[in-house]
Design brief:
Number of strands: 19
Structural class: alpha/beta
Oligomer: single chain
Strand content: 25-35%
């Protein structure tokens, strides 16, 4: 009986990181260097987060000539492995975190593996809401973008459209006027959800025009790049073609938290709630970082910084158990 209990305890890892991307891999690097041998459950379909679907990243510090998104994630992965991180290419489908400090946490993976740890870091990120129209996937990264601050520079001197009607869409549109010859905001309703001051500012900008009560039904292109969108007026049914080399989709994000199934406190939008500026969640020993927490900035560099904080918070927690 004593031998069996010893074996069970030896199966309990120090820390499991659920998710990869800049937050997960940075947390793994810090925890690995601290001697905790983290296990990273990186995902089975798109390990590395949203950056694996990004072409050139020009605003990540340390790369004056830019770096390809997949290359950056591969480098982070290798660095984490260098310091002892174990990478598991699977998805977590359910969790049991317990509620008390010191509770052993259990995660169940899609392929059936059940892993246990003293601490957990959740870095599962969020997904861009898609238009789900023909051409969107084909021209993703080749004109279609979900991040104005990441990709706006590539459309200098070209026509741009922004799809959406909230504050994010208007913020993106104003930012993109720095680069595009024109910016057209396309919104499915006849009134915008954005705050009045943002709408007023956009209406006063001569570079910004509006197509209300309209939806994008197709992204068209040639030679591997987007060239225009087909727009349908939802009231009249009429269609038109709007020139656009840059198509920025700003209709919201969905945090990847469904697998938690109530294990952690979430906000109204489904993002994990943390304690102030820390990465501590509602359950002792469980920490969260990156876009699964951050609904505002959603940048690789801010996710990496939060991953560092989560690692340090997890270290403090593990030290308190000794």
């Amino acid at each position: 009986m004593v031998q069996e209990q010893t074996q069970q305890n030896s199966d309990v890892k120090d820390v499991i990181i659920i998710g990869s991307g800049p937050a997960g891999y940075t947390a793994a690097i810090y925890l690995g260097r601290a001697g905790y041998h983290p296990t990273v459950i990186a995902g089975a379909i798109t390990p590395g987060g949203q950056l694996v679907n990004t072409t050139e990243v020009e605003n990540y510090p340390g790369f004056p000539d830019g770096v390809m998104g997949p290359d950056l994630m591969e480098s982070m992965q290798k660095q984490a492995e260098k310091f002892g991180a174990e990478i598991v290419w699977d998805d977590v489908v359910s969790v049991d975190f317990g509620k008390e400090s010191g509770s052993v946490k259990t995660v169940t993976c899609d392929q059936g593996d059940v892993l246990r740890a003293r601490a957990i870091v959740v870095t599962t990120g969020s997904d861009f809401r898609k238009l789900d129209v023909p051409g969107e996937k084909e021209y993703s990264g080749k004109g279609v973008s979900y991040c104005a601050t990441c990709d706006g520079f590539f459309f200098r001197g070209k026509p741009i459209v922004v799809v959406g009607g909230g504050d994010s869409a208007f913020t993106d549109a104003e930012f993109l006027t720095r680069f595009g010859t024109s910016v057209t905001i396309i919104h499915r309703r006849d009134e915008f959800r954005a705050s009045k001051i943002m709408v007023d500012r956009a209406e006063a900008n001569e570079k910004i025009s509006f197509l209300k009560s309209s939806v994008v039904t197709e992204v068209k292109g040639e030679d591997g790049s987007a060239t225009s969108v087909i727009v349908k007026n939802v009231k009249t049914g009429e269609t038109s073609e709007v020139p656009a080399n840059g198509v920025f989709v700003a209709i919201g994000h969905t945090p990847t938290t469904a697998f938690l199934d109530g294990a952690l406190d979430l906000d109204a939008q489904g993002y994990i709630q943390v304690d102030g500026a820390s990465t501590r969640t509602s359950v002792p020993g469980v920490f969260a970082a990156g876009d699964v927490v951050d609904s505002v900035y959603r940048q690789a560099i801010s996710a990496a910084g939060m991953g560092c904080r989560a690692a340090l918070d997890a270290q403090d927690y593990l030290n308190s158990l000794q």
